[in-house]
Amino acid sequence: MSSFKNICNTQYLFKFGNRLLATSRPATMATLASGNSLPSFPFKRPAGPEPPIEYAKLRAQDPVSKVKLWDGSQVWLVTNHRDVCSVLADNRFSKIRTLRGFPELGDGGKAAAAHKPTFVDMDPPEHTIQKGMVNSVFTREHVETMRPSIQKTVNNCIQTMTMGGCQQPVDLVKNFAIEVPSQVIYRILGIPNKDMDYLNSCNAVRTSGSTTSREAADASNELTAYLGRLVSSKETEPGDDLISKLVVEQLHPGHLQHEDVVQITFLLLVAGNATMSNMIALGVVTLLQHPDQLSALKKNPTLAHDTAEELLRFHTASALATRRVAKEDITVAGKVIKAGEGVIASNQSANRDEAVFKDADTFNIHRVPGPQLGFGYGIHQCIAEWLARAELQCVFGSLFQQLPNLKVAIPMSEVNYSDPTKDIGVTELPVTW
Questions:
Q1: Is 212 a known active-site residue?
Q2: Catalytic one among 83, 260, 353, 423?
Q3: 382 is annotated as an active-site residue
Q4: What are the pLDDT tens digits along the chain (433 aa)?
Q5: Is the pTM of this model over 0.85?
Q6: How far apart are CA 320 and CA 255, in angstroms?
């Protein structure tokens, strides 16, 4: 179990699996919760892919507590599994980002909140209506009909990545982890094959940590303009794809406007791609760090199902989206969250809750899959969760089978992870096979 003890007045020792990490912190949670001493959020990961060590301490001592954001605002942070589920299932907490008190994590978030929302930033009944317009494509049953196509995409991407050999290391992120989810969602939306490289380029600029905010905004505007033209083309020549479905069933009858279709398409195109590419790359690194489990997966590729679930729990690649604002006074774990106060329900912390997951800081594909919250919880649980699962299962049921000698071409200590205050990811991963 994750544990900590007071080493001295300001030093704590945390156990993550078999690793011990020390951090300087005030001696009591009362100190953390007083005035200007509130901890700043987002917390920083201590090293590589490991979650912030503050979460373990808060789960044990103060699972519903206040933190300070970039603009000085104070919001509630909920860290244990039970209370995170309680918040995310309670419709008295709103997802509408323009409501006063909604917690944004930077200037970019505030700017994005001003745009016309899609269903992910709506409350019922609007959320229910708009989500219902696209939900049929992402049901578990429909995704299963797509599985052969997803598997074919995975196989093709492996073949394309390896066709030039590996005399020099190949970046698995660029050549495989991004390609698989991108090709799958492009096909669902009805984006022409000839435009895929262009869109991947736009998206790379949008999500790169090395670009300026202006460059990222320009790339987003360029992508939006492209999608606007694509939606217009579907209005006159609809096909058998999701954009055409929205045009024929919602735009033509007047249920949606052109801008709405563009915004929904933009959401479905970009929302999960970075998360999925990160999960693929993180999965490769994590399995190579656990050779016994990788060996078991190679011998029995049906373990890909449990491998995917454990990766989603262990890494929680989308960890900063489960934010809400209270519409009325609500009591959570004995704390009164007042109307207009923001709440961050940390699914990343919940996924390491020892009360739910034994040896939670240990990666174990053999554990009985539990109620992991990698896709969130409640009515806003990720619409594409079954698609994401199918992609991960196809990837990890095939990649090491087809490339049994796949390995990272640099020391694991040199793997380039994302900014420690952002969602966990891998920016590049040179591999050989």
A1: no
A2: 423
A3: yes
A4: 333 333 233 333 444 444 444 443 333 333 344 446 899 999 999 988 999 999 999 999 999 999 999 999 999 999 999 999 999 999 999 999 999 999 999 887 877 878 889 999 999 999 999 999 999 999 999 999 999 999 999 999 999 999 989 889 999 999 999 999 999 999 999 999 889 888 888 877 776 656 677 777 788 888 999 999 999 999 999 999 999 999 999 999 999 999 999 999 999 988 878 899 999 999 999 999 999 999 999 999 999 999 999 999 999 989 999 999 999 999 999 999 999 999 999 999 999 999 999 999 999 999 988 899 999 999 999 999 999 999 999 999 999 999 999 999 999 999 999 999 999 999 999 999 9
A5: yes
A6: 31
Candidate list 318, 322, 349, 418, residue with the active-site label: 318
421 catalytic? Reply is no
* C-alpha to C-alpha distance for 84 and 252, rounded to whole angstroms: 40
Helix (H) or strand (E) segment spanning residue 205 = helix 196-207
CB 189 within 8 A of CB 241: yes
- Catalytic residue, chosen from 86, 94, 275, 277, is 275
Which of 277, 382, 394, 427 is labelled catalytic? Answer: 382
Q: For residue 29, what are the contacts with CB-CB under 8 A and spacing of at least 6?
A: 57, 58, 61, 62, 65
Q: Which two tokens stand for residue 176?
A: 């495989």
The yes-or-no answer on residue 65 being catalytic is: no
